[in-house]
Structure formats: structure tokens, C-alpha cells
Amino acid sequence: xxxxxxxxxxxxxxxxxxxxxxxxxxxxxxxxxxxxxxxxxxxxxxxxxxxxxxxxxxxxxxxxxxxxxxxxxxxxxxxxxxxxxxxxxxxxxxxxxxxxxxxxxxxxxxxxxxxxxxx
Amino acid sequence: xxxxxxxxxxxxxxxxxxxxxxxxxxxxxxxxxxxxxxxxxxxxxxxxxxxxxxxxxxxxxxxxxxxxxxxxxxxxxxxxxxxxxxxxxxxxxxxxxxxxxxxxxxxxxxxxxxxxxxxxxxxxxxxxxxxxxxxxxxxxxxxxxxxxxxxxxxxxxxxxxxxxxxxxxxx
Lengths: 119, 171
What we know:
The complex is a heterodimer of chains A (119) and B (171). Chain A is mainly α and 119 residues long. In chain A, 79% of the residues lie in helices and 0% in strands. In chain A, α3 runs antiparallel to α6 (93-112). In chain B, α3 (76-85) links the parallel β5 and β6. The longest helix of chain B is centred in the C-terminal third of the chain and has 46 residues, at 125-170. Chain B starts with 7 loop residues before the first strand and ends with a helix.
């Protein structure tokens, strides 16, 4: 299940980038867990206020973080929203953020099912 | 500052521990970049925004900057512009970090502004090593060149003083 949602190659690459220390990888995963709800909170506020610039920046950050951990669907949704914000045409931003929230929940659940210590 | 910028081997300039500034508003990216830089044997300081980056750059000695483009308020291009306008900082190589999927235009602008190179956000560690290594080698060469010309200037000035002294005694 989790392998369908999370691209493990991305996690292996991340581990390789940071020098192979799995404790460091866990620290980054904790950072992902802590920062994702904050970014989503900013996105919700920005969507409600139709502040596309703020929405774009938060979507950009969540996209980067999701890609680092191989959360492909979540990253793609964030990327689509980021592009829409850049073009100035976002139809129903609140609904778009809602989709991202659901994808984030799925990704976090899948990440919890992956033992980072297994490599 | 690098430990021993004057150490040159017959293969080229020897690698040594460099001081790298990582600039990114995203906490996770900042941590990842710091870990990546330290994994290569260098030390890293981090800045979470453009203003902090410029403050650290003016107060410290950095051998290279890894700079995110998209940041709120003072973005990476603004930081790069300010750095290149400062004669004391303009020789520090800057490697732009970009998502690339929709930032190609910004990367091109950054290169035009004087960025040394760029890296995609999801870079391969081999690529970071190669691009950082090349930038640091250029920086070392430049530092050595500057030191050499500085010595020449001092020697020339000293020679002129001696010369003037001789002429003074004769008259």
C-alpha cells in the first residue's frame, strides 16, 4: 500500500544526499511532519483570502518537501496549485487546498508505514 | 574561510573544509542542505531569509553560498544582486537552488546576474559535490591570485620607499 503512494527511490536519494545517516533522515521526517500542517494552515488562510502569492509560496514549499519524501501525488497537487497561482487563475482555491489536505493525510499515513531504518 | 587555501597538489587545488552559507526559507530544505554540505566535509551556516543572509555575509567569511530563488520578501535574485553589488562579497561563488520545473527564467536571470551555477531542488549528491567542488576551486584560485597581487603591490610600495630613500641620501 505505502509503496504506491511513496516513491522509495526518493527516500533513498534523500538519505544519500545527507550522507547516509538514518538518524538525520528521521530528523528530516520529523521536520516534514511538523512543517506540513503549518504549511497547510497557511494555504487554507491564503485560499480563504484569495491571496494567490502566499498560496503559491506555501504550495511551493510543500511541493519540495513532498518530493524529498517521495509523496508523488501530494507533490503533483501542490505543483498544479503553484502553477495555477502563478498564472493568476485558480478556480476554487479552497477546494484545491482541501484535496491537498487529503493527499497529505494519505502520504503521512503511508510514510508511517515505511520503516526508514530498513533503508 | 577554507582551512588551507594555498595547498596545491599536482592534480590541482586540494579539497579542504570550506564555510558554506545555505539560504532557504523552507526549514526542511535548509536542514537537508546543511546535512548535505556537512556530509561533504564542509561546515554550513544557514539563513532563513534574504535579509539574514546579507547580514551573515557582511559579518562572516564564506567560501560559497547555496541560495534558494523563491523566498518571500527579499528573494534569491535580490540577495544575488546585493551580493554582486558589494565589492567585498562579489567574488563569493553562488549556486542557485531551483525547482527548475517553473523557474527556468529565474535561473537564467540568476546566471546573468553572476551566479556560478545552479542545482535542482532534488539534486543528486554527486552533482552537489561536483558543482560545489568546482566553485570552491575557482574561489581558491581567485583568493590566491588576489593574495599574489596584494603581495606584489606591497613589494612595489616597499621598493618605492627604498628607492626614494636612496635618492634622498644622494641629494
